[in-house]
Write a structure and sequence with these properties.
heterodimer; A: about 400 residues; alpha/beta; Aspartate Aminotransferase, domain 2; Aspartate Aminotransferase, domain 1; 2 domains; 7-stranded mixed beta sheet; 3-stranded antiparallel beta sheet; B: 3 helices
Chain lengths: ~400, ~90
């Protein structure tokens, strides 16, 4: 139930990869013998499969090690290439850590970054975006589907706004590609990050889409043999690339089927929990969201205690990258969730292989433990007595 | 080329389900069975013989994938999930 962190490998994907882990081990960049040609053909087929899923040209797809690398490449690459004329970047407060961290790094190199706030529902305000543009803005980076609360940003509108101003638009679509329809031309996206292991593909592979017309130019982050049009040196891992390609093809075929089923299961989970337990808040916009990522706050329950109680169910209070710390999620704080509710949130992920039984088991355990934890909580008792917790003056010892 | 007969399609359907039943992973097993059932139901009214042939070929290819993946799955088996405990199947 934590498919936002990672997804299991689809058997169809593994089946396509295995020959390249055994018989066909050639270096796809070797031009002098058949081993290389076989691998190159497989890699190019995979590139086409990725491109087809997002409506791009295969030449616009660069294989990377994952969405984190793609995001680094997009932000640092574009910013550095145009640094002589443009020194400003716009992003949002709810981006993934690797985007925010890349931005922090660029700030130390002398770039200016605007971190747009988001509204209560987790979406950005387009008016604020328009107001944030400066004459020397080179790049706007907004993620398509948020990894913690599942909200879907108005990518189409943002694309229009950026294109009208001739500013490049990057989107981190790791949680969106293969799950909702994405078309880079229709949405006017100039750069897009894709991850393999969020779409039932292997870990350690991803891709970045880089538009050719109008051309987006990047300064490579990694120096070396000049593979991938010189943008990402290093041998492309053929089996992983093949796996990403196969995952994209399967995702394209199964998108409608998966989406329908995931929506049903999500509905089942939310209705059951909401009808049994009071004071549950759903974080993020109700309408503009990807249904497979549900973030609920259980008031008067400590999220981590609930996760401990539900230890036989794989759940998380936020993203895997930050799950080691007890700090409440910065995404929830950005949407204005109160500190106490941010501490009591749990993210439920539903994917291709989730079953009704798993949803029901999770719901039943969750309801049982929320009730139990609340019975132990003095705060809950006070709420039952009608005391407004916000009116209490806590003394510090 | 003659289209596959009803009996052939049904035989393929049963073979797919039987093979999927052998997945040791709970999630793969339930997914495969569900997906096969839904796909055959969705396409049961198709009359165009070319289309039928195309789907039958796809199903045959998938049967081979399932067969190989079941074998791999059995080589690396893991603990059962809580869902699969007594009372839950």
């Amino acid at each position: 139930m934590d498919v936002q962190a990672t997804t299991p490998l689809d058997p169809r994907v593994l089946d396509s990869m295995l020959p390249y882990l055994t018989a066909y081990y050639g270096n796809p960049h070797s031009r002098t013998h058949a081993y290389g040609w076989e691998s190159e053909a497989a890699m190019e087929k995979a590139r086409r499969q990725v491109a087809d899923l997002i409506g791009a040209d295969p030449r616009e797809i660069i294989f990377t090690s994952g969405a984190t690398e793609s995001n680094n490449m997009a932000l640092k690459g574009v910013a550095r290439f145009y640094k002589s004329r443009k020194k400003h970047i716009i992003t949002t407060q709810t981006e993934h850590k690797c985007v925010l961290d890349s931005c922090r790094f660029l700030e130390t190199e002398g770039f200016r970054v605007t971190y747009l706030p988001v509204k209560k529902n987790g979406l950005i305000d387009l008016k604020e975006l328009e107001a944030a543009f400066q004459p020397d803005t080179s790049l706007v980076s907004v993620m398509t589907v948020n990894n913690e609360i599942g909200v879907k940003q108005p990518i189409h509108d943002i694309g229009e706004i950026c294109r009208a101003r001739k500013v490049f638009f990057h989107t981190d679509a790791a949680q969106a590609v293969g799950k909702i329809p994405m078309d880079v031309n229709d949405m006017k996206i100039d750069l897009m990050s894709i991850s393999g292991h969020k779409i039932y593909g292997p870990k350690g592979v991803g891709a970045i889409y880089v538009r050719r017309r109008p051309r987006v130019r990047l300064e490579p982050v990694q120096s070396g043999g000049g593979q991938e049009r010189g943008l990402r040196s290093g041998t492309v891992p053929t089996p992983l690339a093949v796996g990403l390609g196969a995952a994209c093809e399967v995702a394209q075929q199964e998108m409608e089927y998966d989406h329908k089923r995931i929506s049903q299961l999500a509905e089942r989970l939310v209705t059951k929990i909401m009808s049994e337990v009071p004071h549950v808040v759903m974080n993020g916009d109700r309408e503009h969201r990807y249904p497979g990522c549900i973030n609920l706050s259980f008031a008067y329950v400590e999220g981590e205690s609930l996760l401990m109680a539900l230890k036989d169910v794989a759940l998380s209070s936020g993203s895997a990258c930050t799950s080691a710390s007890l700090e409440p999620s910065y995404v929830l704080r950005a949407i204005g969730t109160d500190e106490d509710l941010a501490h009591s949130s749990i993210r439920f992920g539903i994917g291709r292989f989730t079953t009704e039984e798993e949803v029901d088991y999770t719901v039943q355990k969750c309801i049982q433990h929320v009730k139990r934890l609340r019975e132990m909580s003095p705060l809950w008792e006070m709420v039952q007595d009608g005391i407004d917790l916000k009116s209490i003056k806590w003394t510090q010892h | 080329m003659a289209a596959s007969s009803r009996a052939q399609v049904l035989r393929l359907y049963r073979a797919l389900l039987r093979e999927s039943q052998r997945f040791s992973s709970y999630n793969y097993r339930t997914y495969a069975i569900r997906r096969i059932r839904d796909a055959f139901r969705e396409n049961k009214n198709i009359k165009d013989s070319e289309k039928i042939e195309e789907l039958v070929n796809k199903a045959k290819a998938n049967l081979e994938v399932i067969h190989r993946q079941v074998t791999i799955g059995q080589l690396y088996s893991t603990q059962k999930l809580v869902i699969e405990g007594p009372g839950n199947t």
